[in-house]
Amino acid sequence: MSYNTWPLMDGKLVPGDLLLLEPAWRNFFENPKTVQFIHRVGAYTIFAVALWHMIATRRRLPGTTHARRATLLFLIVVVQASIGIGTLLMHVPLHMALTHQAFALFLLGFAAAHWRGTKGAYPLPHEIALRG
Fold it and tell me: What is the Cα–Cα distance from 32 to 40, expressed in whole angstroms?
């Protein structure tokens, strides 16, 4: 419920005092500023990777189911980011925070299904080769 601004955090792109606690590793679990900064950097990374994946897949495999799923995955990431930013700017109302958490599970499930879709169909039982 702190640092409720976006895109800046504490008035800066990279706020100070991220590694205030000793030993430094404690900051990643016990320093609210560091935890929120890591969450934001992770979100930006996921956004960028999903965008790159969508663009690359649409160029390499235009019109395919995989390209459509990559586009949908990016759109789900955009919705998740929007919910997260809205939650932050509204000072973390419980219903928004819970929506952000629930939608994260949906996003994870879709991402896993999308990845699984790249592997093709599961082999049928009579197609499995048994080794003796």
Answer: 12
Among 47, 124, 40, 20, CA closest to 85 = 40
Quickly tell me which residue has 């990559």 as its tokens.
Answer: 70
Residue 93: which pLDDT band, with cuts at 50, 70 and 90? very high
For the stretch 37-48, what's the b/e string if a residue is b when 16 or more beta carbons lie within 10 angstroms of its beta carbon? beebeeeeeeee
d(CA 80, CA 122): 30
53 burial via Cβ count (<10 Å: 0-12, 13-18, 19+)? middle
List phi, psi (to 5°) of 12: -135, 160
Q: Is the pLDDT of residue 99 over 90?
A: yes
Task: Indicate the SS3 state at residue 27.
Answer: helix
